[in-house]
Amino acid sequence: MSDKKPHAQPPEKLTGIQLTEVPKSAVGVKAIKSALTHIANEVGMAKGVGLLAKLNQKEGFDCPGCAWPDPDEKRAFLAEYCENGAKAVAEEATKNRVSPMFFATHSVQEMSEWSDYEIGKSGRITHPMILREGSDNYEEISWEDAFNLIGTELNKLDSPDEAIFYTSGRTSNEAAYLYQLFVRQFGTNNLPDCSNMCHESSGSGLSETLGIGKGSVTLDDFNHADLVIVMGQNPGTNHPRMLTALSDTKKHGGKIITVNPLPEVGLMRYNDPQNPLKWIGSGQKLTDIFLQVKINGDVALLKIIMKLLLEKENKNPGTVFDLKFIEEKTHGFNELIDDLNSYTIEDLLPQTGLSLSEIEEAAELIASSKKIIICWAMGLTQHKNAVDNIREVVNLLLLKGSIGKKGAGTCPVRGHSNVQGDRTMGIWEKPKEAFLQNLEKEFSFEAPRKHGYDVVAAIEAMHARKAKVFIGMGGNFISATPDTEYTAEALRNCDLTLHVSTKLNRSHVVHGKQALILPCLGRSEKDYQNSGEQFVSVENSMGVVHKSSGHLTPLSNELLSEPAIVAGIAEATLKNSKVNWSELTTNYDLIRNKIENTIPGFDKYNERIRKKGGFYLPNNARANDFSPTATGKANFTINKPSDIQLKENQFMLMTIRTHDQYNTTIYGLDDRYRGVLNERRVIFMNPDDMKQQGINKLDKVDLISHFEGEKRVAKGFLALPYSIPKQCTASYFPEANVLVPIKSKARISHTPASKTVVITVEKV
Ligand SMILES: Nc1nc2c(c(=O)[nH]1)N[C@H]1C(S)=C(S)[C@@H](COP(=O)(O)OP(=O)(O)OC[C@H]3O[C@@H](n4cnc5c(=O)[nH]c(N)nc54)[C@H](O)[C@@H]3O)O[C@H]1N2
Ligand SMILES: Nc1nc2c(c(=O)[nH]1)N[C@H]1C(S)=C(S)[C@@H](COP(=O)(O)OP(=O)(O)OC[C@H]3O[C@@H](n4cnc5c(=O)[nH]c(N)nc54)[C@H](O)[C@@H]3O)O[C@H]1N2
Ligand SMILES: [Mo]
């Protein structure tokens, strides 16, 4: 093998940018055209349309796109999908195949020189593959040999804590449950997951304040809200079906405030995809008040809003705050008021980049609204003070009594389609004692108590050779994680890296001494086990657990389901397990029975999961009960604005998604809603900042991140003037991940701070 190491970063090559006007509204004809083009190219039209008809229907399969819920009642035939859901399905059902012949033809080094787009478009993996030590090409391996090799490597470790078991968020409840059970029987809680990089800050902030780490609203609440505030989220791209819910809020007379450094098109105007008469034209206005906040200015903004509300409340007591709710249900109100009084608006204002009059207008609307929903995603959760962001959101809702009642509450909008379910199933490095005890009782073993590594700690452990085997249940670890070069060293330090995957990705080429790829069935495919055809279940962003049944014939006879793969690994590894792994996977009802016996909320799981639309899990915050918190009440908390000080010529960089990607899977090279076509290596900048730096439109620049005296460089980006606050910039994930320092993470949740990267921009 050559000394050259396979590339962990996408190549620096530019692809030929074209700029267009930023569209005025989202969805509409272009979205439908784009969806159909992806379907036609990847899957073929006839099969593709059949697939879409099954998507998110009560008898169909769950969209692998996002975790936005389906309507409880009416579901339009052929309409519960969106442009990006169609792209997600097209990616999975693609005609392209990565076969043993493909691997024989393309070395690991060669594939690492391709862009993520090219890697992904190679297609679905058809056979289990192994990269042997010293070899530059993957070769076929039997399932049995693969399982035995894994068992041998795991049992060779000095301690079970030397293995890392990562999970991405597409894994079904059934597979996730078996996986965590196997890992705990093996003897570790090293179960980091994509959630650590995603909504962990929401979980941390919400559990402490409201006693549940999940959101409290249901889809129907959007029909009853006076006001929906959307913070740090781009639903037009990442949760397109949410636009229907926002549109419903408007239809019922509610208002929308958007808080975002970018005027994301989808939030501004929208054409209803389910009403063809409305596909053309300028669409419906969604956002009533747009607060173009500076990156990481949210705590400062929320504090100003709460100070303005306090002023109004003091003038007319009982008209702004819900005093009865505060008195009966909450803890720490006086401390919050003292904290608010310790700040002045003048001190806070510069962090927001907004004028006081803009904030006053928003505060007025909040003051007069009784039922408020606050939605958020990565714009709030990926900062050093991300947990503060979430807790400050909760403070505002509590002041208004906007929780635990119809039309009001918390709405952290989840990403991966089953990321919430995976956590419910025990994919967590910090399991609760009661959960472990239930497992022990049901399966007669001693579960480990020591907390495991989260994503950042896992990378550091592999880097230090404290962990030597990496197993990924889905996902694309090298491209999703921060500090690409550091993480690559960590993975290369491993004795074995193993990925259970559907499609080829960069993590397959940045590998340990030996590497395995185990190909699995996708959501859209039928899953046959000994007792016949199986279905799986998933939990959406609003805590509804429902069924998902594949529709397509599996692309290769060699694929196994995720539960079957876990069972295979478990049997080859565990010598004294009392679990009959292969029997459990003959019929997933048996796994669901075990879930019912060990996890609260799943009574009569097998019966209720067969009901159309599934069932809601219990949710104390929704039920206006905060007894699970430490104080037994909903807690007000004291939070800190950003403490990042930019030096002269420094900028804040947020790493975001284009309209044409699913995390690290690149569907295409366009970001249509931001007017950028055929190029991903761009940086959006404020036009005045560009002038000041002497940077012209489309100049080539290098991005250099600065953290505790360390520098990291991403080369060759095109500068684009854009509507973004001063000193704020944006670039795309995963190209910019190399700039995110491993140690730059949120307090408490440890989520990488991928939205607050301090950079300088240097003209090449
Ligand atoms: N098509 C598609 N769908 C997806 C995904 C995908 O990649 N593609 N990914 C899925 C996953 S896993 C997730 S987690 C979600 C992600 O969904 P989003 O969170 O919507 O995704 P991002 O692109 O990270 O966008 C973050 C948004 O926050 C804003 N923002 C950034 N920093 C700040 C800040 O400091 N304050 C405020 N107020 N706003 C800020 C950005 O301008 C941007 O609009 O989407 C899920 N759905
Ligand atoms: N800089 C920066 N970094 C980020 C983010 C950011 O905003 N900025 N966002 C973060 C967030 S929110 C998240 S959630 C993570 C995402 O991190 P991951 O979940 O690790 O990444 P994905 O790109 O979603 O994983 C895609 C891969 O999953 C595999 N796959 C797809 N479907 C299936 C399936 O059904 N089963 C199995 N076994 N495998 C499957 C395919 O092989 C595909 O290549 O990235 C994080 N990283
Ligand atoms: Mo995510």
From TrEMBL:
InterPro entries: Asp_de-COase-like_dom_sf, MopB_CT_YdeP, MoPterin_dinucl-bd_dom, Mopterin_OxRdtase, Mopterin_OxRdtse_a_bac, Prok_molybdopt-oxidoreductase, YdeP_MopB. Keywords: 4Fe-4S, Iron, Iron-sulfur, Metal-binding, Molybdenum, Oxidoreductase. Pfam families: Molybdopterin, Molydop_binding. GO terms for cellular component: membrane. One of its GO terms (molecular function) is molybdopterin cofactor binding. Its cofactor is [4Fe-4S] cluster; Mo-bis(molybdopterin guanine dinucleotide). One of its GO terms (biological process) is cellular respiration. SUPFAM superfamilies: ADC-like, Formate dehydrogenase/DMSO reductase, domains 1-3. Residues 651-757 form the Molybdopterin dinucleotide-binding domain. CDD domains: MopB_CT_ydeP, MopB_ydeP. Residues 124-496 form the Molybdopterin oxidoreductase domain. Belongs to the prokaryotic molybdopterin-containing oxidoreductase family. This is CbbBc protein. It comes from Tenacibaculum holothuriorum.
